[in-house]
Amino acid sequence: MDALVQYLPDPSQRSPPPIIAHYMKRLHNSASASKPRPDTTLNALPMLLVFKILFDSHWGALTLARVYSGNVVAGAQISNWTRQDEQIEGNENVGRVLQINGDSYTALRSAGPGCIVALTSLQSTRTGDVLGPPGNMFRVTETAKTPQGILANDHLDSASEQDLGFYVPTPVVHAALEPRSVSAIRGLERSSFILRSSKSGCWSAFVALH
């Protein structure tokens, strides 16, 4: 990961991915309608793209993300903008910011643009999600169309997931799984972790009454 950070272009040296550019544009438009705090500049606000969810026996779920702007700080609140768009509460607290080197993890106080880090304690984040500043960073204005404020403004370019490069087709293979005992249900529940790491699957539960 250090090699990737060293040799890949800094985010400021090239255009961000379409999905990051989309949310940054929404952030700039919301800032023009809702005056930001004096000590806050748009460039200082965190913006991250999650590219993988890993599961470690010690740390649990690790959210691997690249920082495109601002700094992500251990213990700070961050918002899952993708989940906010789905009308799901997206504010979460970052546990630790970790730098991964093989099987070792180094805790960092913060990480800036270009860094690839692993975040702990994020419960609802999935692969492909965009993490940004909490919704209360800006005052909600009358132009906001829903209570979610800046995260619920119109999709400025009517961009779809396919346009933004994160479109995943509907699965065409289906399977039914039935646990043989109550103790086996826990193992089945763990399969939900796989769905967080890949957007290509979905599941639903059916409880049969006898």
TrEMBL record:
Any one GO BP annotation for this protein: mitochondrial translation
Keywords: GTP-binding, Nucleotide-binding, Protein biosynthesis
Domain Elongation factor G-like residue range list: 49-131
Pfam assignment, any one: EF-G_D2
Cellular component GO terms, alphabetical: mitochondrion
One GO MF term: GTPase activity
PANTHER family: RIBOSOME-RELEASING FACTOR 2, MITOCHONDRIAL, TRANSLATION ELONGATION FACTOR G-RELATED
The protein's name: Elongation factor G-like domain-containing protein
Species per Swiss-Prot/TrEMBL record: Dibothriocephalus latus
